[in-house]
Amino acid sequence: MGDGEKDYVRMVAETARGMWGEETVQGIMSHIEATAKAVYRVDCYPLDVSTEPVTKVRPEAG
Amino acid sequence: MEPYRLSLSEAARLIRDGVLTPTRYAESLLDRIERVEPTVEAWVTVDRGRVLEAAEAATREAAEGRFRSPLHGVPVGLKDIYYTEGVRTTMGSPLYAGFVPGQDADVVGDLKRAGAIVLGKTETTEFAFHDPAPTRNPWNTRHTPGGSSSGSAAAVSCGMAPLAFGSQTGGSTVRPASYCGVVGYKGTYDLLSRGGIYPLSWSLDHVGFMTRTVEDALITLKTLRPDLSDGPPSGEAPKLGLMAGYFKENADAEVWAGFEAAVGKLWGEGAQVTEVRMPESFRMFPDVHRVIMSAETAAVHEDLFREHADGYRPYMRGFISSGLLVPASAYLRAQRIRGVIMRDVAQAAGGYDALICPSTQDTAPEGQHWTGSPSFNAPWSLTGLPSVTVPSSLSGGLPLGLQLIGRPYGDVELLRAAAWCEGALEFPGGPRDPYTP
Fold first, then answer.
1. If contacts are CB pairs under 8 Å, which of residues 24-43 in chain A contact chain B?
2. Residue B335: closest CA among chain A residues belongs to which residue?
3. Is B335 touching A (CB cutoff 8 A)?
4. What SS3 class is residue B421?
5. Nearest-by-Cβ selection for B333 from A30, A42, A53
6. B78 FRET partner, CA 20 to 30 A, in A56, B105, B117, B379?
């Protein structure tokens, strides 16, 4: 796990503690970590707006 | 032969020929349930009186020469997340222990109109997710049947039902079907309506069902979607794209050895098998699937969870909580990457009748504490491609499955390819008596 991913997981865990308290978060930390890691990796995956099919952005159309 | 031993297609033929009445068929299945259920625990609700009443109506119609469809008089199991009018539907959760829907799910209505008989409601993991049902695997009752459609797979495997419906968001139809040695099919996304089925993650949820033969699955699909084209003539050896890479790296050694042996048989019978290189974007499927599923599951449960968090079991509670923390931008980015994966996989699959890989990464795990990994099925829930498992062989006394993946809306063609593979693999069929070592 790189520093960016660690920092992001730490930030999400802090947010969770703020919402539900330390005791509750301890019991669900494995879920919070796993989902936060997935979010981080999704955020880091490069999307080419000229080819990705969902937004259908086509530079030549502009 | 006791009618419960018949496959769906055999029973349907006998009903049509007037040799077997729906009432006699239903009685045989109900008796089988009475004998086997204490060991397997596949059912939440079976109402003998209601089943026999429906069977007698189907019998009267048959006697008058009225056959509504090939499923006329065929009893069907339904995962306990399918709404059934007047019949308790629990979602595997104490929060819905007393819930009785006022209407049928779309598929249930279609089945009834086709003359099928609702045999009962089958066990599911909590809200069709992770926390296990009590059901045991008929091949070895010390092992899980898989999940989340645990009861449906076990019921078909040991002859308590010829057909049972499940759902799949990750691997909840194909995995339990494979673990229990039956055929499990989930269609192209939304080919069969999700209306009236309790959602887990709406953009990933699929209707699925289990049978003991591929022919039975094809009959069921064609009954529910008579508009589907017949596809190419059956009997021709299919062109198959073998996916190694991720699947080889993550399969247990005995699973991969069994898969290679199955591929050898298919090749020996004339199938064209070539290796397919999966696209670069495929590596993202576990993260993309998790982000989408956690966010959507949290959205489905948010209101109920706020009021009744203690009514959820621990794994579900943690997963919903984690989904509440997913930023909207990440959810949407995951959906965009999903689009890339779908496009890339569809390109890789071009030119094949089906892609193939093992149905599961392992055989059914020992114990009842979890239902196994959906990792070999989740890609097809994410991409919405139709998939089916066909039992292929045994490893350590437990079934292995061959998973075939088709093109979007190429469901009939996929099942025809699966039928060809089923014939080549020659897995011993018939209902399984529960075995406890």
1. 27-28, 30-32, 34-39, 41-43
2. A54
3. yes
4. helix
5. A42
6. B379
pTM for the model stands at: 0.97
Q: What 3-state class would DSSP assign to B352?
A: coil
Residue B350: exposure state from Cβ atoms within 10 A (0-12, 13-18, ≥19): exposed
Class of domain B1-437: alpha beta
User: Does the active-site annotation cover B79?
Assistant: yes
Give me A26's structure tokens.
């301890």
Residues B85-123: b if buried by 16+ CB within 10 A, e if exposed: bebbbbbbbebbeeeebeebbbbbbbbbebbbbbbbbbb
Each residue's pLDDT tens digit, B154-187: 999 999 999 999 999 999 999 999 999 999 999 9
- Angstrom distance (rounded) from CA B161 to CA B21: 16
* pLDDT by residue, tens only, chain A of 62 residues: 788 999 999 999 999 999 999 999 999 999 999 999 999 999 999 998 777 766 655 555 43
B235 and B420 Cβ atoms separated by less than 8 Å: yes
Known catalytic residue at B152:
no
Flag if A55 and B338 touch (Cβ within 8 Å). Answer: no
Query: Is the link from the previous residue into B203 a cis peptide, with omega within 30 of 0?
Result: no
Distance CA B52, CA B47 (A): 9
Is residue A57 within 8 angstroms of chain B, CB to CB? no
* Sign of CA pseudo-dihedral B249, B252, B257, B259: negative
B416 burial (CB, 10 Å; 0-12 / 13-18 / 19+) is buried
What's the token pair of residue B427? 């897995």
